[in-house]
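Quick illustration, no need to memorize.
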Amino acid sequence: MQDQYWVDDLNPWIFHLSNGVGVRWYGLAYILGFLIALALWTRWAKQERIPLAPEDVSTLLVYAAAGVVVGGRLGYCLFYNLDAVIAQPLEIFAIWHGGMSSHGGILGLVLAIYLYARVQHADCWLLLDAAAAVGPLGIALGRIANFVNGELWGRPSTVPWAVIFPDAPLVGGINVPRHPSQIYAAGIEGLLVFAVAIRVFHRQRHSGMTTAAVCIVYGAGRFIDECWRQPDLGQPVFWGWMSKGQLLTVPMILAGILLAVWRSKAMRSGFPAVGDASN
């Protein structure tokens, strides 16, 4: 029966020299995500959809990239690997051990955009909207890289498209087929959220609504697709069914709802619309 399922034995390295030196597909996913952001933000700057000159977009990208990488690493260490960090604080810098948190990356991105907006005296909400609109594509690429790496595998399953992940825990001494939850996440957390975000971004009349939409849709999507993902080894399961990943999406969904309500009230109160000179 095991022979009918595909084995995920893909090489995580694009090229590998020695002693962990080389280029991984996961690293390429980050680079492609940042390049897509650079291209779209430059286009929107030329269209005056975001309050930046095209030549300033590269600086915004540096802030955003730093926020994602630093926030993603710190988020993983604090949310998923705190005991190891307390025992050995330098573990934070041991990036070769792996470990990035999407929730931490999002928080880091928000803080980086806020700091950049303060420095440039720009509309923080518009910049956050631009980041929120392209961010899901980066998430989709990252989840595909997770699949190539054979990590973050799904729960055991016998669906026809189930996959055997060699590094997954054995069940009854057997490496059983599992849901390819990374692919589910690429579609739900990535492409679906991007489709919603880009539509809201191009139709919104007031800044902040794209950010709110992404918080809600990404949070809900992550909560749903975690139902097929195997909880990370050693991580608690709350109330017998909720993973830590699901728990961390709850405040994101609530924040998105509160932000949407606040911005809707701002619209009714006559705040200037996006593109108005007074905004």
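The first strand starts at residue 6 and ends at 7.
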